[in-house]
Design goal:
The protein is mainly α. The chain is built from 4 helices and no strands.
Length: 81
């Protein structure tokens, strides 16, 4: 059975995306529009009460939005869960 808990690596991606979003003063709704996802999706991703997560396609699009490499959303070394 698959766990609904957010892993450490998933949380790293979420935290990095949130930090970049806030640095650019982009609202969750604005980011949702730019990612072409529902307005509530970003809030669900950023909340620990939901299991929604960014996938590789989202990370690639986030890199375009924030004008950085997709690698910017991943740690430099592995994270042990």
């Amino acid at each position: 059975m698959k766990s609904n808990k957010t892993t450490d690596i998933e949380q790293f991606v979420i935290n990095t995306a949130r930090e970049k979003r806030m640095q650019k003063s982009i609202s969750q709704s604005e980011l949702a529009h730019l990612l072409n996802v529902s307005p509530g999706f970003i809030g669900k991703v950023e909340s620990s009460n939901y299991t929604s997560k960014y996938n590789l396609n989202h990370i690639n699009k986030l890199a375009d939005i924030f004008k950085c490499s997709p690698r910017a959303f991943l740690p430099e070394t592995s994270i042990s869960s």
